[in-house]
Write a structure and sequence with these properties.
UspA, five-stranded parallel beta sheet, alpha/beta, Rossmann fold, globular, single chain
């Protein structure tokens, strides 16, 4: 169905990550590609005084290891990319760079920050130049698995 899929995976629920990756594998054309992306959100410099200098580097390396391990475990051939920045903007720009025809991401439980700042999903849907598939989170009781 799709040549190139950007599969956005956060470091939250392992079950959600499994579901997204399996869905991407089911939707990609033979010979197509899956790019698993995770974005480590920018931390304003004024807050970095409380964090170790290598925080961002460590977060990048750890996320990449976890995602590569998940792809291997599920036998899903994918390229893993971990970037630092603003998630919605980076997902949209990566889709453009890679000529992706689908961005696959997961919704979450809405909270007050979504009303004030809008959600990543909303921003991606509004600005993406390709199709966007939003994987709806099932009942919370089903999602009580440890994080990635």
């Amino acid at each position: 169905m799709y040549r190139t899929i950007i599969c956005a995976i956060g470091m939250g629920s392992r079950e959600t990550a499994n579901r997204l990756l399996r869905r991407a594998a089911a939707l990609v054309d033979d010979g197509g590609s899956i790019i698993v992306m995770h974005v480590v959100e920018n931390i304003p410099r004024r807050h970095l005084t409380d964090l170790p200098e290598e925080f961002e580097t460590t977060a990048l390396v750890e996320a990449e290891k976890k995602l590569m391990s998940l792809c291997k475990e599920l036998a899903v051939p994918a390229t893993v990319e971990v970037r630092i920045g603003i998630a919605a903007s980076l997902l949209v720009s990566a889709a453009r760079e890679k000529s992706a025809d689908l961005i696959l991401l997961s919704s979450h439980v809405t909270d007050i920050t979504d009303y004030v700042f809008s959600s990543i999903v909303e921003k991606v849907v509004r600005h993406a130049g390709c199709s966007v598939l939003i994987d709806r989170r099932p009942n919370q009781a089903q999602e009580d698995t440890p994080p990635l």
